[in-house]
Model the fold of this input.
Amino acid sequence: MRPERTEERPAPASLPEGLRLYAIGDVHGCADHLARLLQLIAEDAATAPQSARHLIFLGDYVDRGPDSRAVVEQVRAPLSFAAETVALMGNHEAMMLAALDRLDGEESVSLWIANGALATLASYGADPNLPPALWRERVGEAHCGFLRRLAKCHAAGGYLFVHAGIRPGVPVAAQDEEDLLWIREPFLSSPDDHGAVVVHGHTPTREPVVRPNRIGIDTGAVYGGRLTALVLWADRMRFLHV
Ligand SMILES: [Mn+2]
Done:
């Protein structure tokens, strides 16, 4: 699909002057999409040379798609156009870590396998028939440590960035980690003002969803859709798609 840079439009919240923020939705092993999207972001960033550029990955780097290892590598790599990069944890990273650590024994392994782990294991050259302790060896301490240290949410200006969403009516500081990584309803249809506009991935839609209280940008790259970045600055926004 052809790369697209949408027209700028009013945003539902604002960022401090001089800050330009890029948020990237669920990648799921689509390393080629990510490389093309980062190129598009670099081109967009060049149009705002005076701004500080921050990059936020919304999680779900692994599973289902062709090259999870390469995606994790790309997310870890410092990017010349971004002064700061924040990588959030998705439920797929949580499942992967639980399986590698065998937190709930066999159950955590079968949950991960049922959610696209075979593609991830293949990308790391790990044999799914061998015990998970050996998978962890293939993934390596650098990647395991990186995944373990991923943040669960990030706030900037009038926005809150999180993988899945938040539980309506619960203050951000009191949110359950499970909700931040997994929630769909009642978050998705909630009309509540959450105190910040929630920017999230996790629930794929054909086009980004823009509501007064949330912006969803998982456009299902791994299901044949596009990979999307949301660009935010001042009280404006646009999307980049590949
Ligand atoms: Mn997810």
